[in-house]
Amino acid sequence: MTRFNVLPLRKDIIERLKKYGLERKFDKQIKYLEKDPRHPGLILELLEPRSRGIYSIRIDRKYRALLRFLPDRISIEIIVITNHHH
């Protein structure tokens, strides 16, 4: 089974996780992501426009992480942590 590699987070993303107290929840989700991006707890979703290749995963009910798979198809870059509006 392929293991995925999440790239180190940018400083602004780390600060946002700390600001909203999401570090533990985020770490849990990253472990799922590295093992299997299709894990049901992540709720992985390809966002529109699909051609941009940006995905969303759930951190909790309120927050999502936006990410992209790099061309090697193993590395994942977290782009931003955002509110999820229902």
Q: If you average the pLDDT, what whole number results?
A: 95
Give the proportion of residues in helices: 25-40%
What are the low-pLDDT stretches, counting only 5+ consecutive residues below 50? none
CATH superfamily, by name, is: RelE-like
Structural class: alpha+beta
Which fold name fills CATH's third level, the topology?
A: YaeB-like fold
How many structural domains in the coordinates? 1
β-strand percent reads: 25-35%
**Which strand order spans the largest sheet, edge to edge or round the barrel?**
1-5-4-3-2
CATH architecture annotation name? 2-Layer Sandwich
How would a textbook summarize the main sheet? 5 strands, mixed
End-to-end C-alpha gap: 34 Å
Approximate shape:
globular
**CATH top-level class:** Alpha Beta
Run of helices and strands: EHHEEEE
Oligomeric status of the shown chains?
single chain
Enumerate how many helices there are, as a single number: 2
Estimated radius of gyration: 12 Å
Structural commentary:
- With 86 residues, this protein is of the alpha+beta class.
- The chain has one domain: YaeB-like fold.
- Helix content is 26%, strand content 29%.
- It has two helices and five strands.
- A five-stranded mixed sheet has the order 1-5-4-3-2.
- A hairpin with a 7-residue loop joins strand 2 and strand 3.
- The model has no long low-confidence stretch (mean pLDDT 95).
